Amino acid sequence: MASIRELHKHLVSKERSAVEITQEALDRIQALEPKLHSFLSVTADRALEQARAVDAKIAAKEEIGLLAGIPIGVKDNICTKGIRTTCASRMLENFIPPYESTVTEKLLAAGAVIVGKTNLDEFAMGGSTETSAFGMTRNPWDLSRVAGGSSGGSAAAVAAEECVVSLGSDTGGSIRQPASFCGVVGIKPTYGLVSRYGLVAFASSLDQIGSFGRTVEDAAILLGAIAGYDPKDSTSLKVAIPDYTAALKPDLKPRGQLKIGVIKETFGEGLDSQVEQAIAKALEQLQALGAEIHVVSCPRFRYGLPSYYIIAPSEASANLARYDGVKYGYRAADADNLVEMYTRTRATGFGAEVKRRIMLGTYALSAGYYDAYYLKAQKVRTLIKEDFEKAFEQVDVLACPTAPTTAFKAGEKTSDPLSMYLVDLMTIPVNLAGLPGISVPCGFDDNGLPIGLQLIGKALREDQLFQVAYAYEQSTSWHLQKPKIE
């Protein structure tokens, strides 16, 4: 499937219709879904209806925007009016939101075609999409491996060309890590740049909606469409949204003007040697394109993981208290009293990983432990943010691997939660600091599995991230390689 800009040209020139493009995506979904399981709901009838509306506009000689008629996947923790939104949990298996999230409202207004809701780890808690109550998503590059998580369905759908672009959410790496595993571009924007209204909350001070694309330009176009102030989200930032595509240039000249800092704490023990080699080559390429490369230190970077696994579960414990079998969602039957109904509902409605995190968070917030755990973790979070601020006094953009390894085998880490948590080692500090981060493909290992380079920017400097990522992408051919799904 072609890029957004190419498809837009086809539509405007009437070379292809929006219905034809949408049908192509739906046919591909039908053919691949038995193997991949990227989608939890496919909205074929609605999608074709949306496509026909775009074709009618073109026939009436009305102007259409870049996203009009473009097939898009939406992570199934983002509310869509009248379309099931499950969070990949039994708890919300039959929940149909009565309202539209701000991001999907913006996409529909832009004429985008939503082809379905993508699979994820239950309530976005996991790093492999294996905690989904409805079955895991498989990696298009190797069906025996995971697609990453929690936005594994969104990443796999884009990699397999089931849709052109997709929306994900990122709390500790849930866009960037699956983007790395699936060989696509994924951006987590600055906290507050994109409205969270209609995003089912996991950890409210960390959650952020972002975009996936097969190219940097596609990811930039989609982010530009969903970003912006929203009075319905109290954490939304009142800032002007630039045209991110204006920052896309084939090099980083004038030479030496842009400084990239390599975070030394992200190298060493635990980093796969082939990932390390690919990152080293990517940095050489960025230098050849005109960037100055410096080694910088973020000494508290390694404390991101333990801090996150106190803060995120604590916020999850509070956010998930609403699923009690009373207001909406699943309710356990055959309970003799209210307390028993609460207990049975939560025991059977939530999966093991969600229950683990609720218990961790409830413990960290409990009397006598709040100061020792939650308060201390928030103080460490401030120190991590300070490390980033000091690094950005020396450089414009930071670089490191997106993930310490390539995609692992399905089932390899399910019995060891700690090893699963370590997969997000490189991505978590970015969320704690509220900064933007992007993963861009930078090579393959000996098994033919994609490797991602993570670039981290200053707050609200998504334009600079796109500039560096685009220059690198255009000087390499990694993004042109596609998985052969057997």
Structure description:
- The chain has about 475 residues and is of the alpha/beta class.
- The mean pLDDT is about 95.
- Helices cover about 35% and strands about 15% of the residues.
- The protein has an eleven-stranded mixed sheet, sandwiched between helices. Strands 4-5 form a two-stranded antiparallel ribbon.
- The longest helix has 21 residues, at about 370-390.
- It has helices at about 5-10, 20-35, 45-60, 100-110, 150-160, 175-180, 215-225, 275-290, 305-320, 340-350, 350-365, 370-390, 415-420, 430-435, 460-475, and strands spanning about 40, 70-75, 115-120, 140, 140-145, 165-170, 185-190, 210-215, 260-265, 290-295, 395-400, 435-445, 450-455.
- The chain is built from 15 helices and 13 strands.
Throw out a few tags for this protein.
two-stranded antiparallel ribbon; 486 residues; 15 helices; globular; 37% helix; Amidase signature (AS) enzymes; alpha/beta
Element pattern in H and E: HHEHEHEEEHEHEEHEHEHHHHEHHEEH
**Sheet of most strands:** 11 strands, mixed
Radius of gyration equals 21 Å
CATH superfamily of the domain at 4-250 and 434-480: Amidase signature (AS) domain
Q: Which blocks of ≥5 consecutive residues have pLDDT under 50?
A: none
DSSP helical segment count: 15
CATH topology of the domain at 4-250 and 434-480: Amidase signature (AS) enzymes
Instruction: Please list the strands of the largest sheet in the order they lie side by side.
Output: 1-3-2-6-8-7-12-13-11-9-10
CATH architecture of the domain at 4-250 and 434-480: Alpha-Beta Complex
Q: What is the name of the CATH class of the domain at 4-250 and 434-480?
A: Alpha Beta
What is the quaternary state of this protein?
Answer: single chain
Terminal Cα span? 18 Å
Helix/strand/pairing category: alpha/beta
